[in-house]
Amino acid sequence: MRSLVTDQAEVQVSLEALDVPVPGPDQVLIRVEAAPINPSDLGLLFAGADLSKATAGGTADRPVIRAPLPPAAARATRQRVGQPLPCGNEGAGTVVATGSSDAVRRLAGKTVAVAGGGMYAQYQCADAAFCLVLPAGVDAVAGAASFVNPMTVLGMVETMRDEGHTALIHTAAASNLGQMLNRVCIEDGIPLISIVRSAAQVKLLTGQGAQHVLDSTTESFMDDLTAAIAETSATIAFDAVGGGLLASRILTCMEAALSAGSPYSRYGSPIHKQVYIYGSLDRGTTDLTRNFGFAWGVGGWLLTPFLAKAGLPRITAMRERVAASLTTTFASSYAGRLSLAEALQPDAAATYARTATGTKYLIIPNENATAAAAR
Amino acid sequence: MRSLVTDQAEVQVSLEALDVPVPGPDQVLIRVEAAPINPSDLGLLFAGADLSKATAGGTADRPVIRAPLPPAAARATRQRVGQPLPCGNEGAGTVVATGSSDAVRRLAGKTVAVAGGGMYAQYQCADAAFCLVLPAGVDAVAGAASFVNPMTVLGMVETMRDEGHTALIHTAAASNLGQMLNRVCIEDGIPLISIVRSAAQVKLLTGQGAQHVLDSTTESFMDDLTAAIAETSATIAFDAVGGGLLASRILTCMEAALSAGSPYSRYGSPIHKQVYIYGSLDRGTTDLTRNFGFAWGVGGWLLTPFLAKAGLPRITAMRERVAASLTTTFASSYAGRLSLAEALQPDAAATYARTATGTKYLIIPNENATAAAAR
Fold it and tell me: Is A222 on the interface with B (CB under 8 A)?
């Protein structure tokens, strides 16, 4: 699958027929059996296009989806115009060929997961060093999402600890990632405040043992959040929403909780309050009211630079923890499965690109459309 | 001088007659001869009130200025309702009495500068340890502003170095503080990009040797800023404006300069871009467009926590540098002088509270109104 932005401010996502690639000496060739559509895949796939205006083209086997880019999206993707980019950050499958080195040969026949990009494909080569051999009893479907969400969740917890905080706030918290973070925080005894947008999502998370779940659409949200922060001392938040006032409201409530009972200071509480924006469910501007003193920070957060800073021993420990609990703590759930061709139907794209709770899909690259549809 | 926020959403600033205070064993009593009105004083003084609706009251000797607080200002100052707060962060004067300890007695008769608060007063006690003895040839007027602006300027430069940057961007850069930062950067060989809001301010700073001065009101501002960042590699900015899109535009230009010529990455340049907001000339929301990748941070910056982190040896070195150049590098200039009573006239307050370039005033607490007005 390839995503191309044209100089006519249009994105075209299509399937390209290629020869099966040949692995290098330290690589394996994976027959990809499952690859999730994560929110982090959508930006590359559709480049911020307006999918309500998407049109279908091509043939049944080789469909092409086209959609126009609003001006801001066209500006933001100028540098990729004319380059057909491979899609799909992560996935899992069977090693069907290996490079020549001895260390690589022992992976032959194993089921492995990898986050090397280009996984929306029937076959893909990957460096053996980056492959996670799935434990017995974990198939490619269960192991397909073993990298992005699990490592992001653990990266958030590690960042919290590194920066001296002891409790967490998470937004859009009913997502697959949010549910996973809830399970990790319960396991590790970390107080977590989950912010969601509906009563149904509150119910979903409390049903999974979450203690502090707040609906940001309620009247009492600011008071409830302030009370929960006072109880947990959560001074760091990870925000998947990005746009609007949510990050600002979190900082306002942190400041209210921290300064309650203290003598007035025009500079606010000296305790640092941090919001990291790691997603962009709302693409509008982030608006900060700055009524929360001067000891605050808002910044971008991404898994890759965190891992680069963390270093290999820590990454290895994180991966081992994930591998040991792929069907429990780090399990993902999907609304359905799609073949490569099905993923390029405008209706399907409009559904999975909503990134709403319960609309996460799995691509099954090596089944034909009929078999996948029958499920 | 005392500032009081009432429960009727009004600020009242007035003069209170007090006995001359008696210094503690390790304190000195200072006859205050000059105290600047810094932007950082105005928040405490007027609590965000609407000064266009200010009214004068009291008597000629003991005037009272009253002004209503807009709802947001009233909310932000709830914790100080009913407490008359002393005003004036810093100033200088003569030590007219000392505490009993030997170390303190040798300050008798000296001209000292101090940033201990409550300096809009005829007499004020201060801890001797925090007093800077002004060098020969530097009087109280020249030494009145020897703490807030000079230490802020040096704190910015030190923060830049601590966080691994090599060049600086500064906004509202024609201010006293901005001119001082320009002189320090020239001395230290640090590339500085100064952002101002008029051609006259461009001329002012270039006349003082500044190399990169950009007018944010021009059509070509974004292109000019991107080019200046590409030339200087400035990846940290200190922003006194706070509200609006300026911080966001700076990050956008940093990203454009950093990613120029690189292959497309949907996550943007991996080089961290930082904007610290240290003022609030625009009290509106800070709006971030987030079209600058994920390696960015926006945060509050204040002198006091910086100094707390820096530690005493570094603070001492900074203070020594300031003391040695108070009439050159670290000199301030004033639009005029005001007595305590004059500072409480609505017309005067409306002028100095504008915090526009060239409207910085000095309070002379121990002259009567007539003498000060004659100058």
Answer: no
- In which residue are the tokens 């249009």 written? A10
**pLDDT at position B371, please?**
46
How much is the pLDDT for A370? 41
- Global confidence as pTM: 0.89
Task: Say how many CB pairs under 8 Å bridge A and B.
Answer: 104
- CA proximity to A98, closest of A89, A110, A107: A107
Are the beta carbons of B141 and B362 closer than 8 angstroms? yes
Residues 106-145 of B with CB under 8 A from A: none
Cβ–Cβ contact A86 with B under 8 A: no
Q: Tokens 């530097």, residue? A: B138
* DSSP H helical ranges for chain B: 39-46, 71-76, 102-105, 140-143, 148-162, 176-188, 199-206, 221-232, 246-259, 303-310, 312-324, 346-352, 369-374
pLDDT (tens digit, 9 = 90+) per residue, B129-156?
889 999 999 999 999 999 999 999 999 9
For chain A, the residue count is 375
The amino acid at residue A211 is Q
Quick: pLDDT tens for B274-316: 999 999 889 899 999 999 999 999 999 999 899 999 998 999 9
CB contact under 8 A, A298 and B299: yes
Flag if A296 and B294 touch (Cβ within 8 Å).
Answer: no
Beta-strand runs (E) in chain A: 2-5, 10-14, 27-36, 55-58, 63-68, 85-86, 91-98, 111-114, 123-127, 132-133, 168-171, 192-196, 212-215, 236-239, 242-244, 273-277, 282-288, 296-300, 336-338, 361-363
Q: What is the pLDDT of residues B70-95, one digit of tens each?
A: 998 898 888 899 999 999 999 999 99
Return d(Cα A255, Cα A315) in angstroms, integer.
Answer: 34
Across-strand partners of A362? A36, A337
Please tell me which residue of chain B has the smallest CA distance to A279: B294
**Chain B nearest-CA residue for A242:** B290
Contact B132, B53 (CB under 8 A): no
**Cα of B304 vs its chain's centroid, Å:** 12
Burial B309-331 (b: 16+ CB within 10 A, else e): ebeeeebeebbebbbebbeebbb
Three-state DSSP class for residue A84:
coil
Q: How far apart are CA A256 and CA A229, in angstroms?
A: 9
Buried/exposed code over B108-147 (b: 16+ C-beta within 10 A; e: otherwise): eeebbbbbbbbbbbebbbbebeebbbbeeebebbbbbbbb
Q: Enter the ipTM.
A: 0.87
CA-nearest residue to B82 within chain A is A264
Question: Which of A83, A297, A300 lies at the smallest CB-CB distance from B294?
Answer: A300
Q: Are B325 and B44 in contact (CB under 8 A)?
A: no
Secondary structure E strands in B59-118: 63-68, 85-86, 91-98, 111-114
CA distance A212 to chain B (A): 27
Query: Is the minimum CB–CB distance between B80 and chain A shorter than 8 Å?
Result: yes
Q: What angle do CA A226, A227, A231 make, to 5 degrees?
A: 115
| Chain centre to alpha carbon of residue B15 | 23
CA-to-CA distance for A241 and A283, rounded, in angstroms?
Answer: 8
The answer to whether A309 contacts chain B (CB < 8 Å) is no
Letter for the amino acid at A338? L
Is residue B4 within a helix (H) or strand (E), and if so which, with residue range? strand B2-5
Q: Fill in the amino acid letter for A162.
A: D
Residues of chain A with pLDDT > 90: what percent?
83
CA distance A101 to A356: 44
Of B75, B286, B299, the CB nearest to A297: B299
pLDDT tens-place string over residues A151-203: 999 999 999 999 999 999 999 999 989 999 999 999 999 999 999 999 999 99
Residue of chain A nearest B72, judged by CA positions: A291
